[in-house]
Amino acid sequence: MPSAPHGRSFSRKTPPEIGHLWPATSAIAVSILAALPQAGCKESITTPAPVTITSVSPATGLPAGGTSVTITGTSFTNASSVTIGAAELSDLTVVSPTRMTGKTPVATSPGAKDVVVTTDHGSTTCVGCFRYVSSGAEAPAIFSSSDHTCQLASSGAAYCWGNDEDGQLGNGSTASSSTPVPVSGALSFSTIATAYDHTCGLISSGDAYCWGKNDVGQLGTGSTTSSLTPVAVSGALSFRVLAAGNGFTCGIVPSGAAYCWGTNYAGQLGTGSTNSSSTPAPVSGGFSFSLLTTGDAHTCGVDHSGAAFCWGTNDYGQLGTGPPSGSPTPVAVPGALRFSVLAAAGAHTCGLTSGGAAYCWGLDIGSFGPGIPSSPVAVPGSLSFSALATGTIHACGLTSGGVAYCWGYNESGELGNGSTSASSTPVAVSGGFTFAAISAGRAHTCGLSIDAGTYCWGDRSNGELGDGAPQNWWAPAPVSNLPPVVAISAGEEQTCALPSSGTAYCWGSNGNGQLGNGSHTSSSTPVAVSGGLTFSKIATSGLCLPSCSPAGYSGLGHTCAIGASGAAYCWGNNIYGQLGDGSTTSRSTPLAVSGGLSFAELATGDAHTCGLESSGAAYCWGNNDYGQLGTGSSTGSSTPLAVSGGLSFSAIAAGGAHTCGLTTTGSAYCWGWNSGGQLGDGSTANRSMPVAASGGNTFTMLVTGYYHTCGVTNAGDAYCWGWNSTGELGNGSSANSQAPVAVSGGLHFGALAAGGGFVPCSTRLGCRGEGQTCGIIVSGAAYCWGNNKLGQLGNGSTANSSTPVAVTGGLRFTALAAGSAHTCGISSAGVAHCWGYIGALGRGSLGYATQPVAVTPF
Fold it and tell me: 141: pLDDT confidence band, cut at 50, 70 and 90?
């Protein structure tokens, strides 16, 4: 298994150059001199050189097999068998004694597989040297240090993010970045090693490059001059493993000899002295190591037998040798344990035995026993791991099935289980992800999923989570993009989205089954809507906050969507018949709307739903206390009823208890509740049939919040009307308006979204509305105005604004949706972003976000 860059990254998905356990081949070329007294001569008999594997390229492939691979090594003459995961390669060709080619077999399961070469004079195993993945574009590895993270693309290009005050991101600057930036130099790396203030990488030839701080020679260039871009390590050595510590770096050359350079005040270079070195210096003892790992001031390695050796400081027992006295040369870790993986960080070390059992020693990150465990102690829980990663004060492991577990300190959510409570035993990382690699930093963790997603969680004080977000995440949050999203809708405390596949995903509150996954359990990450249906459009609502009354109206939530044939399906709360299935029974999975109508548009209000046929005829169903169904009465219906008036609409929108439609000529008509003037007819009288909005404007679109309505004219000018207690009309005041008023700022909009809900009140008619409005201008930039108590304006603050303010982050949007206290948008790249109340943001965390954050991938 791979070694840990700075002791922090172990991956089931990296190629052998990154530090897989090399074969413990016992055959060694020897000469046997046999005295032949009768002839007075001697005969020299030489055994063949041992079989070794130095690389498998490419190191990943699809489960269907057929990937052409090249295996390099030694003594391949007369090779009789090459297997990956115990299955034979096809089209095997021995090109030379050091090179073979062939095609991979079909995989029995995804993940890392052993490569075994058998010849007529021996065999060798390269552990986990080939990995079956579901996507050929998956990046091979991820590496985290104290405050920054780096990742390799499949091309070998390196990207880094986080703290850059010493140039450790390698992009020629010292500006920290909360999103990935490419490392300069156009180098193609096979592995990366990250440390507190510097980074190193290997290219395929084995040449090492380093960048960042160099005050103690940690870059290995023969000087102490720092570099903001990669510079070659001196000495003309070829490495197959690198590990970086706090101010020093170590590597293994193909012979197994270890070299270290940089600071050496505690003997961490292993040279037998405490003299620092700015060029690679050999580690004493003549050991042949298969892997190395580094902590802050100590180094550990595993030889080909699996025995562990450590050197450097031992203040906390991190060398595993008992009493805390350091050593400038390698000393054996006591006991009969044999390790396939080692990971060190800070002042502790952990290892995996060949059976997958985890042991740790040094600084007690998990309270495994009284005092400091200065020799290996078993990690509780009886889990079997295939990969391991250590942070400064926490550790994580992957099971063979790719399930991640973490333990130790958790102040920033670095354990990824949705809390900040420390744990002395491994706890499962939230989200149900299957990881192929995991890496840990000071107080954050990152992982690569088997479907190519990159996720990080924990502390983000230096941008180390890589998503540009301003807060910590207590569960995995994506660094890379979502699959393209084509539609999104925001409700009270839930959001739903449609990717291009048409499968619906929802997240957030689920007390009424509005997520549609057959349960009533809320979810902070997207869950698939049950039933196997594909949808073209989706709408979710329930804008009444839990504090509103009367009883029975609070906490409503339902969702509706249009299927491929135009049929409408709804799920969630149904106490007013808003699901349209002829009953008042709530549903947690989609059920077809009665009547056999074919809809082109749908809109969901607090407790009613409306739809448009392709002909433009409007139908509504559900609660009708205020005439929001538009039928000329206040009688509700659990099946669709035609809206009165004979108007033909091109668009429809539903608010809390009012509805608006846009005719084919661009006129706005509204009906239902009008206490704040949200119908726009110059009055506050409720209407049970459509009435025209005042002003004679010609609109191209309409949107409704709980208590207000907005529209965009042909010229792109925005107008709003209704309640305005938090500035949601955008005209620079807080006065309600019963007729359309122009939004201030002179901006021209192509799309709008409106949200909002109640504040605490004693009677429904006495409630005061709060809402927000957002819009997209021609460039794709988003602006919002109105209520911002939970950051739903996305401008990095929580101050309300009665005029448009720019959404931060520089994103360009194609669509927006607004809920009661959050807003979401689809970026030009098809990525869903949300801001405001985090329970509805799909990010597995609590609190709120004041600027856009990407939704966890579906």
Answer: low
- Whether cis (ω within 30° of 0) applies to the bond prior to 23 is no
> What is the SS3 assignment for 460-496?
CCCCCCCCCCCCCEEEEEECCCCCCEEEEEECCCEEE
In 3D, which of 591, 607, 541 has the Cα closest to residue 764? 607
In angstroms, rounded to a whole number, what is the distance separating the alpha carbons of residues 389 and 407? 11
Residue whose C-alpha is closest to residue 440's, from 15, 139, 4, 18: 4
Residue 56 has pLDDT above 70, yes or no: yes
CB 3 within 8 A of CB 18: yes
Max mean pLDDT range (30-34, 301-305, 448-452, 810-814): 301-305
Q: Which of 327, 331, 324, 332 is nearest to 371 (CA)?
A: 324
CA distance 848 to 248: 40
Find the angle CA(442)-CA(850)-CA(457) to the nearest 5 degrees. Answer: 25
**CB-count exposure of residue 826 (10 Å: 0-12, 13-18, 19+):** buried
Our CA dihedral for 501, 503, 508, 512, rounded to 10 degrees, sits at 160
What is the token pair recorded at 781? 């930039």
> Which tokens sit at 64?
């269907």
Tokens for 431?
């989200």
- Residue 142 corresponds to which amino acid? I
Q: How far is CA 382 from CA 156, 379, 399, 421, 425, in A?
A: 37, 8, 11, 21, 10
CB-CB contact of 55 with 17 (8 Å): yes
The whole-number pLDDT of residue 294 equals 95
> pLDDT per residue over 199-236, tens digit each?
999 998 889 999 999 999 999 999 999 999 999 999 99
The dihedral built from the CA positions of residue 585, 587, 591 and 596, taken in this order, carries a sign that is positive
DSSP, residue by residue, 311-350: EE--TTSTTSSSSS--EEEEEEPSSS--EEEEEEETTEEE
- Greatest Cα-to-Cα distance within the chain, rounded to the nearest angstrom: 126
For the chain, the C-alpha Rg in angstroms (whole number) is 32
Please answer whether residues 561 and 568 qualify as being in contact, where contact means their C-beta atoms are separated by less than 8 angstroms.
Answer: yes
E-strand ranges in 167-214 read 177-182, 189-194, 198-203, 208-212
Closest CA to 400 of 366, 434, 428, 429: 434
Q: For residue 479, what pLDDT is reported? A: 64
pLDDT reported for residue 855: 72
Q: Which amino acid is at 333?
A: V
Whether residue 550 is preceded by a cis peptide bond, meaning omega within 30 degrees of 0, is yes
Q: Which of 832, 809, 825 lies closest to 776, judged by CA? A: 825
CA–CA dist 779, 349 (Å, integer): 52
Question: How many whole angstroms separate alpha carbon 509 and alpha carbon 631?
Answer: 31
pTM for this predicted structure: 0.53
- The tokens describing 795, both together, are 């401008």
pLDDT tens track for 719-761: 999 999 999 999 999 999 999 999 999 999 989 999 887 544 4
* SS3 label, residue 398: strand
Q: Mind listing the pLDDT tens digit for each residue in 593-633? A: 999 999 999 999 989 999 999 899 999 999 999 999 999 99
- Annotate 131-157 with b (16+ C-beta within 10 A) or e (fewer): bbbeeeebbbbbbbbbbbbbbbbbebe
Report the distance separating Cα 2 and Cα 691, nearest Å. Answer: 70
Helix or strand holding residue 253 (H, E): none
- The dihedrals phi and psi of 16, each to the nearest 5 degrees, come to -60, -25
